[in-house]
Amino acid sequence: MAQAQGGPGPGGPAQGPAPGGARPSQAAPAPPPASPSAPAPPPGASRSWRRRWIRLRRRATRLWLAGGIGAALIGALATLLATPVGTWLDEPDTAPKAALWDRGKDECAMSWMFPGSSGGLQAPGKQPLTAWATSHGGVPAARDEFGFQVQGTSETQVVLLQARVVVDARDAPVGGIWAGVGCGGPKDYRYLDIDLDQPSPRPVAVGVNEDGKAIDFPYQVSRGESEVFAVAAHGELNDVRWHLEIDWASDGRTGTLVVNQGGRPFRLTGTSARTARCLWAPDRTTLTAQSVGCESR
Fold this sequence. Notes:
Elements: H1 47-82, E1 97-100, E2 111-114, H2 129-135, E3 139-140, E4 143-151, E5 158-171, E6 176-181, E7 191-195, E8 204-206, E9 219-221, E10 226-234, E11 239-250, E12 253-259, E13 266-269, E14 274-280
Parallel strand pairs: 6-14, 7-10
Antiparallel strand pairs: 1-4, 2-3, 2-6, 4-10, 5-9, 5-11, 7-8, 11-12, 11-13
């Protein structure tokens, strides 16, 4: 009697096809990747074990998220504590500001030195004197007058303690033509007089205003208040570059306000090296008798 093929092997009897010709059941789909803190279920695990594994994975995910948020909060707090207070809490600025007047307002008191020959110097005519002088390379000479206004930037009172002159450079006077327009003498008003021929110039209060008030430091200014100063600087011996400094104090703070020409020092030269003098009448076209060696056109 013949034996059936596929007889029993070493592991036991051979299994035939499933009843009714059915195929073996397919394996269940693999679970999604697990969190590092939750181990994957072993192959062939029971359904109850898989439910436990899912609960464990969800709990690990919640703990992982909570830990990340906590770390972020701790990092932000550490950054805030390490940040200097001044970067997020601005200190109120109480430093006063200064603004110059138009330097051409009192042109009668102004004159200039022009390097070169007087034959190339044109009469000013109807031009503003300051613009005319600048276009011909003139340097303020002998006497210069200007004004500046100091005003506070906050409601806190600012005390202007004192003013001083700082000489930035002192050179030999500029040579050439001394020129200007004769249209009156010095006015009588309150101003700070500065003699630049002195080794250590200092501002000296001169005159009084209509109320009889002389310049007398200290002054007080705030956002709604200001103080106006007029300055008259003069010198004959040197070519001087200089500026003013005003010390101030406010609510425990102190500082120094610098008054200059937009970052550049004032400049005034003496006239001792002049080679000619051109002085025009108020019509700005006719030379006066005080002119010497002037061949202007």
